[in-house]
Amino acid sequence: MPASALQCPNLTVGRHGVSDLNLWDSKQKIRALLEEKGIQLKKRFGQNFLLDPNHRRRILSALELPAGAKVWEIGPGIGSLTHGLLEMTGDLTVFEIDHGLIRILKDLFGSSISIVEGDFLRTFRDTARNSSLPRRIIGNLPYSSGSVMIGSLVEEDLLPDVAVFTLQKEVADRMLAQPGGKDYSAFSLVCQLRNRVEKICDVGGAAFFPPPQVVSSVVRLRRRPDAPEGPQQDYFTAVHDLFRSRRKTAANNLKGGGLKSRYSWESMKNAAELSGLDLGRRGETFSRDEVLSFTRALSDFQSPEAS
Ligand SMILES: C[S@@+](CC[C@H](N)C(=O)[O-])C[C@H]1O[C@@H](n2cnc3c(N)ncnc32)[C@H](O)[C@@H]1O
């Protein structure tokens, strides 16, 4: 752990020398900071900063971070969580899109953190390729793109053993939903492929500045011991096919979906029979295990054929 990282938790760097988790605990402090730096908040980046030290503590402890382990933080903003993370590790990479906020982060944390500048969706693959993978990922995610970020991490199989995200409650409800439930969606099946998803808590708008109109939830994704390795492209395509139309049967959804460009209808019927999948059921009733058995059976058909 670099020595500089060890000094940072007490905020010996920067001019806003306030202690530990009380950093940015009032809207007045945040307003003053933004004014001093001449920064206007940008709605499109979902910039709502966490004020409440109790929620910060809860979110950080949900991460179960082993001391010194490598962490990625998505969207650190003005460092509401970053500071607490640095108390636990000196190996912290943060991804931030806003140049004004990046200036603040540099001022506050100096070389104690590694900052990847730009859109996370464009930078995370190269970052993963060019350095060791994180053991934890955390993020209070922007409302507009949080689900795309999580979906991309799952599809690239880059989620570590534990990840903790704060997002819009409706999105969290979809991640947690079970077959047949009203929130069950393709996104539920994507998130549940390699992870068990659990809710840590809800967070009301008053815990943030500026306060969002919606309630947020904190969720933890824990990697399943039986998480399948490798790309799993057929699984993701099947999941999206099965939810093409909620009213249609799996058969009808699959017939017009993306898997059809890789496998004949005959192969799909055979795979369904082999894996015990009833194609007469609605797509939205299938569990993660059922879809996975189906796509595993499908991959046994040696060369995917277009029909
Ligand atoms: C909800 S704020 C969270 C800020 C801070 N982590 C907190 O808890 O107070 C979301 C943060 O994500 C950043 N952000 C938005 N879109 C991004 C993207 N595509 N890539 C990287 N950062 C992004 C925003 O600038 C903002 O700092």
TrEMBL record:
UniProt entry tagged with the keyword Cytoplasm: yes
Residues binding S-adenosyl-L-methionine, per UniProt: N48, L50, G75, E96, D119, N140
Start and end residues of each Ribosomal RNA adenine methylase transferase N-terminal domain: 55-225
One GO cellular component term: cytosol
Signal peptide residues on this chain, from the entry's feature table: none
Pfam families per the UniProt record, alphabetical: RrnaAD
Keywords per UniProt: Cytoplasm, Methyltransferase, RNA-binding, rRNA processing, S-adenosyl-L-methionine, Transferase
Keyword Nucleus included in the entry's annotation: no
Gene3D superfamilies linked: Ribosomal RNA adenine dimethylase-like, domain 2, Vaccinia Virus protein VP39
SMART domains membership: rADc
A Gene Ontology molecular function term of the record: RNA binding
Highest taxon, organism lineage: Bacteria
Family indicated by similarity: Belongs to the class I-like SAM-binding methyltransferase superfamily. rRNA adenine N(6)-methyltransferase family.
Protein name: Ribosomal RNA small subunit methyltransferase A
Organism field: Marispirochaeta aestuarii
Upper lineage: Bacteria, Pseudomonadati, Spirochaetota, Spirochaetia, Spirochaetales
